[in-house]
Amino acid sequence: MEVLRVYVNLTGWLEVTSGNRVVKMLPFEGTCDGPFFKGTILQGGVDTQKTDLEGNGTLSARYMIDGVDCEGNNCRMFIENNAKTNSTTTPTIITDSPALKWLETANLQGRLEFPDGKLNIVIETIED
Fold first, then answer.
1. What is residue 103's three-state secondary structure?
2. CA atoms 115, 111, 45, 65: torsion sign
3. pTM score above 0.85
4. What does the pLDDT look like over 72-114, one tens digit per residue?
5. Is 114 exposed, middle or buried (0-12, 13-18, 19+ CB in 10 A)?
6. CA 76, CA 84: separation in Å to the nearest integer?
C-alpha cells in the first residue's frame, strides 16, 4: 500500500573526490502527498551519496516535513531513507502525529521514480 509520495526538487550539489571514493551531498526541497499525510519539506533536506570507483555505493537522505495528517491535524514527520546504490530504499519515519505513530514501526520500503525527468520517492508498506 502506498503511504507517501515525495516530490523532490534538487537545489544544488557538493562533491568531494578522493583516490577511491566520491561523496556527494544533494540538498533538496519539495512536497509530499498521500492518503495519510500532505506537507512541504523543510529547509535542510539532504541526500548524501558515497560511491567507490566501481560504482558501488550508498545513499542516505534525511529530511523533515511540515504538514497535515489524515485527521486534519498539523504535524511534522522526519524521514531517513537509506539504500545501497540502485536498490530499493529503507525508510524510517518519526512523527509527532498520534494518528501516524503506526508508521514508526511499520515495515516500509521506498522506490525511486523519474516521471518527466523529476525525482519522486514512493514509500509503501511491505506485507510480512
1. helix
2. positive
3. yes
4. 999 999 999 999 877 789 999 999 999 999 999 999 999 989 8
5. exposed
6. 27
Note every long-range contact of 24-28, with CB atoms under 8 Å and residues 24 or more positions apart, other chains counting. 24/48, 24/49, 24/51, 25/49, 28/61, 28/63
- Sign for the pseudo-dihedral over CA of 70, 73, 74, 79: negative
The residue whose grid cell reads 503506526 is 102
Residue 73 carries which DSSP code?
-
Q: Tell the residue number behind the cell numbers 509527532, with chain if given.
A: 96
Nearest Cα neighbor of 125 from 34, 31, 8, 62 is 34
